[in-house]
């Protein structure tokens, strides 16, 4: 198994987002198993013809999402993404629910706001 990333210079998505999405997708599908050691930021940037800052931005986003973890000088590895992603989503949902209650939104209005946000994020109409 190896990391495979293709950057489409003509795509509407920024290169860092392409890197982020492809690594996240491969981790989620199991193509990159938990514990897989990712290339260094500089190494991946060089192999993709990107600036190191572009890859670093993708790695930071992946780490914030719990998809990867950096272990100091040992490197960056695929984390147990499913569990971590579920924990992050649950915490964010709890924070939203508490804020919606403080704002005086009904449950129906809060759910409608979430549905609208999900449709916008996923680009679906239903």
Can you put this structure into words, describing what you see?
By secondary structure, this protein is mostly helical. The chain has 2 domains: 15-79, Orthogonal Bundle (Arc Repressor Mutant, subunit A), CATH 1.10.10; 82-122, no CATH class. Helix content is 59%, strand content 6%. It has 5 helices and 3 strands, in the order αβααββαα. It has helices at residues 15-29, 41-48, 52-64, 81-102, 107-122, and strands at 37-38, 68-70, 76-78. It has a 3-stranded antiparallel beta sheet. A hairpin with a 5-residue loop joins strand 2 (68-70) and strand 3. Helix 2 packs across helix 3 (52-64). The radius of gyration is 17 Å and the shape is elongated. The N and C termini lie far apart (36 Å).
Put the structure in a nutshell.
The protein has helices at about 15-30, 40-50, 50-65, 80-100, 105-120; strands at about 35-40, 70, 75-80. By secondary structure, the chain is mostly helical.
Topology order in helix (H) and strand (E) letters: HEHHEEHH
- The CATH architecture of the largest domain is Orthogonal Bundle
| Total domain count | 2
The percentage helix is 55-70%
Kindly report the CATH topology of the largest domain.
Arc Repressor Mutant, subunit A
Strand order of the largest sheet: 1-3-2
Report how far apart the termini are. Answer: 36 Å
Defining key terms:
126 residues; mainly alpha; Arc Repressor Mutant, subunit A; 2 domains; 3-stranded antiparallel beta sheet; 5 helices; 3 strands; 59% helix; 6% strand; elongated
